[in-house]
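**Protein of interest**
===
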Amino acid sequence: MPSHDRGDKMNWTYALTQHILVPRTECKLIIVGETVEGQPFCHEDRVFLEEADLDAFSVSLEFELVNPLDHLQRISFIEFSFQDQGIVYYSFVSFKELITENSSCVLKLLSPQELYSYQNRRHHRRPLPSSTPITCRVVGARQRFYDETPLFEGTMLEISRSGTSMITGQRLVQSLMLEISFSLPDVQEPITLSGEVRSSIPLSSESFRVGIEFHDVPPQILDLIDIYCEQTSS
């Protein structure tokens, strides 16, 4: 299996197999080129991922009145980007096909091999074994804490000192505050933290990929996570 570079890039295959890029993920395109009138063309737009595989992917661009690409004659470059757990990943991609409908169009693009981060990652983030469980409960919203709700479970995907991601059957929304408990492989001490939901992407009607940013973590727990990530980084 291709590895996920812990530095400033992410392998495209990793993004697909770890469900980071799934249908309806919100992304951004920057298209630079030349109009039919010979003028510079520059367009930035939020788009939604339709489908993706190792060779190609497609995104849908929606518009109300006029297709902004109608006057595009030549493409100089296209930058594709998305955000995952507060980190912006991007790559320059090649155009393959354009399909226009009434109030939207679908751009088919060639998949890049690597995605680069806009800034160097602050902390190591390491994939976890597929069977790593996590127990959660909702305890508030927008960093304000209220009455606790019932426990639910998930499976952790990866972790750094700044956050984690998981697969769960519970529908969650951004800004919810969670209390989470888990044990890292080969680390005896169980860990309980609070975190904020930063993203929640449906994988199916009963499965969601949730990104969590940690809050108010004791220094000794941060050190424990750092040691785990560094020891397993090779």
